[in-house]
Write a structure and sequence with these properties.
This protein is an alpha+beta fold. It has a single domain, classed as Irregular (Factor Xa Inhibitor), CATH 4.10.410.60. About 35% of the residues lie in helices and about 15% in strands. Strands 1-2-3 form a 3-stranded antiparallel β-sheet.
Length: about 60
């Protein structure tokens, strides 16, 4: 059986954590930083977890995690 293909767009946006949950970057940290408070910018740095409802669909796109 041939190898499965990873969806490259999903691979650039999502990573799997050690326990198998899907991590994603938070939105809003690309530009217009001056209008955002220091606290808000600091909170946007951390990655967030994808909701369990969508995680299964994302894992299909990342067969090798």
């Amino acid at each position: 059986m041939p190898k499965m293909k990873t969806n490259r767009a999903a691979a650039k946006r999502f990573k799997l954590s050690g326990s198998g949950r899907v991590r994603r970057p938070k939105c809003g940290l690309q530009h217009n930083m001056i209008g955002k408070s220091r606290t808000r910018r600091r909170r946007l740095r951390d990655n967030a977890m994808v909701s369990p409802e969508l995680a299964g669909r994302i894992k299909i796109l990342l067969p090798y995690g």
